[in-house]
Amino acid sequence: MSSQKKARRSLGGGVLRGDGDGQGGWRKAGGGSQRPGVERLANPVKNPTQEPQTGVLFLLVVTLWSAKKGPVMIHAMIDSRATNNFIDREYADSLGLQYHDFKNARVVQAIDGRPLKTGPVSQWTEPTRMWIREHMEEISIFVTEVPHFPVILGIPWLTLHDPNISWTNRELQFASKYCQNHCLVAKVCHATDAEPIITLPKKYSDFWDVFNEKEAEKLPPHRPYDCAIDLVEGAPIPRGHLYSLTEPEQEALREFIESNLRKGFIRPSQSPAASPVMFVKKKSGDLRLVVDYRALNNITKRNRYPLPLISDLLDRLRGAKVYTKLDLRGAYNLVRIREGDEWKTAFQTKFGLFESLVMNFGLSGAPTTFQHFVNDIFQDYLDRFLIIYLDDFLVFSRSQSEHEKHVRMVLQRLRDHGLYAKLEKCAFDLQEVDFLGYRVSPLGLSMDPAKVSAVLEWRAPTNKKEVQRFLGFANYYCKFIPDFARWSDPITSCIRGKQPFRWTEQAEKGFQQLKKLFMSQPILQHPDPKTPFVVQADASDVAIGAVLMQPVGEHLHPCAFYSRQLTAPERNYTIWEKELLAIKAAFENWRHWLEGAKFPIEVHTDHRNLEHLRTARKLNQRQQCWALFFERFDFQIHYVTPAQTKQADALSRKPEYAAGRRETFESQLLQPENFATLTVGNTKSTAVEPTSSSPGPLCAQEIRASQQADAWAQDQIRQGLRFPFSLKDGLLCYRNHVYIPPGPGREKALHLCHDCKPA
């Protein structure tokens, strides 16, 4: 029996009322049927003709918006005699709600008239959104300790919305003029809303428990599909060292341990094994704990259960006209670690050693174990009206009436096996849907717009250099494009000779036509899981780019393009990290094709140091997180010349990415104004005449010698220089300014520039 059912059976007192006005009583919830289009109340009454004079509590499912967790479905109680709305403080804290203080605290009394032991109510919440199906409002709630249920809605709420209550059918409707004008989602769901409006369709409302976040936090039972961790015989037990954590990370670690101990997901351990922990930032900015299981994975026997072929899954969708997409909540946490293997998952922290009772992200066998689990549970539904890839479910049907039946069958199966869906990531009754990298509709499969947006959004060139980059990208595919010269010649004519650059109407027409042709067959082909994948990745100062390709005959055909601007923090990364970030972003974007690929993925990069990614020892915390991410993929990095990565290079240097660019090497280089007298010219003469306070003349020979001894400078030269780097008279320059490595030479240059007349 769930905790909420127990609570309903044990209700015997404890109604809250404010300032001594009114009182209420608890009534037990009952069952019953429900008509569509109305809210069902949980409490039947003995006299259906009138509201009981003693007051009644009703159980209602509502959704509260949490800035910390997004939409959260909870139970709220409607108390017809409570003189205010109340929320339990512990629950409000877990949602991250913001509070305001009352000038004068409010006295709250229990049913017997005595003040609550917790004292007067002194705070109320910042207005937050609350949904009851299609009804939405902004609500502020008194904060106190509420028994049994997290929220109580009292007289102020009932008075404001004036809902129609059918005591016979236990139904509630929002039909007041106020609600019609202010609360119906159809009236208030504008495109400018900051948060998405997410509701469970009425026809599936009896499955609200399948979307209950609280229930999903319970420890699952042992099943035949528990995650087994079989170690290689004789392998040494891994025991890592503690990683240093920032203050926010330490606080997040404390919260993680307290929360997961409370759920029963982890327990204190005395294991001889110990893996370190680290944190990665989610898109929301929140921190997510990751256990570094790389050492454990290296001595774990691989689970060879196959992941499904995406092409086979998509073939099953022929003839379907209606789609529903479901996403499981806490997917891997729904599977237990095999009994007796828990000690192998132990992770160490400053707060002690703990081991996991549920499957964690980062374990090598997690994806295949989970796929085996869901495949067996839904075996009789697969390929008939359901396809599953890990935690992504797609229900498909030929008609709307058939589809409702299929969705209900899937939801019932989830309920039967104690599995829960994440409402905020589900979508119901769609005519077309994006799934596993494709746009699926009754017309068939088409490219997901995200796969081609990197090319479609390419802005027209504004100078000769940008034209050259685009043509470098286009020329690679000229062998696949009929009449390529017809469309490219007007573009090429813009950079012929020494005439000033002018972008003509004919050039624009050819530019747009070539972009369209890049999106079509035979240029852009559907990925074939039976063929090896090649990922070409590159980074510039301001952006990253990648191309997913597969060999066809003697040529590599593109399957998808990807590019994006670097964020402000990412622009401060080293060149090594930017190149690695390009590969990581490509793997994330095409995960559904690359994770579990039949053949090792071949990664092409022009940064030679990345070949040693898997054997590098000294990594910072960010790189450690990335290395853990790469453990999910079977790939090999190959160094190729810059000429062989022109496509990815061009995507990372599109014109639109140059706007607002910010240089990242100021800490390594002299500022431009410092070069008023220090120039690269005749190497036989001194660049400046020092004053008496200068340490001595600085010449090109000294700079060249310091560059030859500087590992970073030599690394740039070995890789093959690209803009903004160049060699002039044997000296490494950045945007035509000389690079002076750290050391006596840099100090001397600063003195020279400071003491010369322009300074």
TrEMBL record:
Annotated Reverse transcriptase domain residues: 261-440
Extent of Gly residues compositional bias: 11-34
InterPro entries: DNA/RNA_pol_sf, Peptidase_aspartic_dom_sf, Rev_trsase/Diguanyl_cyclase, RNA-dir_DNA_polymerase, RT_dom, RT_RNaseH_2
EC number: 3.1.26.4
Broad enzyme group: hydrolase
Matching PROSITE patterns: RT_POL (PS50878)
Molecular functions per Gene Ontology: RNA-DNA hybrid ribonuclease activity
Region (Disordered): 1-48
Any Pfam family the entry gives: RVT_1
Family: Belongs to the beta type-B retroviral polymerase family. HERV class-II K(HML-2) pol subfamily.
Record-given protein name: ribonuclease H
